């Protein structure tokens, strides 16, 4: 019989002494004199690994409306191309890199790269292009160098915004308890959007957009066995590259968005003590705006010396008192202190109060919030868990219509997991908002309608219910259903509540998701969701009027995929999506008759058919066809000169069919 013993084993055996008294536990082995480096496994080195895939796509788009670019990723007609990638690299020394890209080269795409050594450092680089299309506008105002020049010829402009975002970040781990990071981001936004001015009659025009935002974040993270602290700085600077706009016969008729900057210092941390976890944060910030102002008669200011200081603090705790009982709570405080300069305006038409016969100064507005949340969870029995909580929020506003509001909310949730195939979640909450006396704001006008209540400040009762269930009768089927209902009532509980304004609002709907794994080769899914929002409000324009506003939304979708064709090389599939939204407003004036105010209506059909064919283990072809049918109409939009004295950008409604055919080649690493 042959015995094969390596040198390390022989050394361990020789160090044990007499066989009769030996303890062969590895913890007693004496390896001090063993040259372990000479006996390392030469075949145990982990090789460098590349995983992922790279895809190049070439296609053709046929569309008569630029709005289709929101679905296809580009509004370019004709031939389009893009690159997708998801590649990772890892070697034995701990170096890791990752590259991700999606529709790179198209109007909506991104690329992201990460590289570094595990436990030491990481560098990240990101670029993203985001383009959104609204509609095509027609205008007779031409913009150049800050001047809006009227012209007899009509100019067609795409109302679209393009955002180019780039970021660079670096993380360095000094040791296992100390980590540092810094990141810089920049966004450039260009394009056109809808705007309005009076000159002397109302005119809608395509406002040019050319602005940039720079952001910088840096911080240090310290950690221990049961604690962690993050000390960081966050800053941003906004710059508008388009100044005030003028007409040939009137200067500075449209004020530009002012340049501004913001800075924050933050300290956040977490501490764990047995079954209790504490976490909190303190953030101090300052926002500054000191851009030039448009000069008008009676205005003594050349620029606005604006400054707002902010303070945010939060402390939260959660504790497992027993294996069945968990309790938690948080206290949140925020303050917005407006320290902008205060000036006295001597021009009567700007500052004169006809009731008090006095001149006034501009008033700075402050706001302060306190929020307290308490919650608990208790396991009633195996498979039954009850959660409940109380939320309190108080908001104080200076010089507002209502200086103080208080929200009190009680909520509860029952989670049932007793059964193998079905799970239930039942949630309910009830909230009441009250506060100080509601008075007309001195800043807005002391003659304001005393019966008018703004919905975000008025007394309100809110009740909300939600029921969710997950049903899995077999391993090839799963069904999720969620139903919700909420009602906001602005009733007259104290005789000082809403008479004019929003009276009541109901929000209810459902969401249904179905997943089917019919066989190893066949899968399917479907979903449906609907939402209804019904509101009642009243107003006063010569006569009291009442309005019912009904908004409804629906989303339907289904898909199927089958693999295993042509020797398991071919997979085919289809996806369908339908979306519809409808808004109706019915006005009843003095109960003398009802009038439709005008509706908004839109629907969208989207279909995708595709086939994927594996040329080999590392190469794959995909052919996909996508179709979109989109239609919308908005009664609030009118033609350019349909209303005397009003110039619009034309009808922006959509009604189009769009097609995209795309061939993709993928290489799998």
From TrEMBL:
Signal peptide bounds: 1-21
Coiled-coil region: none
Identification of the protein by name: MtrB/PioB family decaheme-associated outer membrane protein
Pfam family name, one: MtrB_PioB
Keyword terms of this UniProt record: Signal
UniProt xrefs under SUPFAM superfamilies: Porins
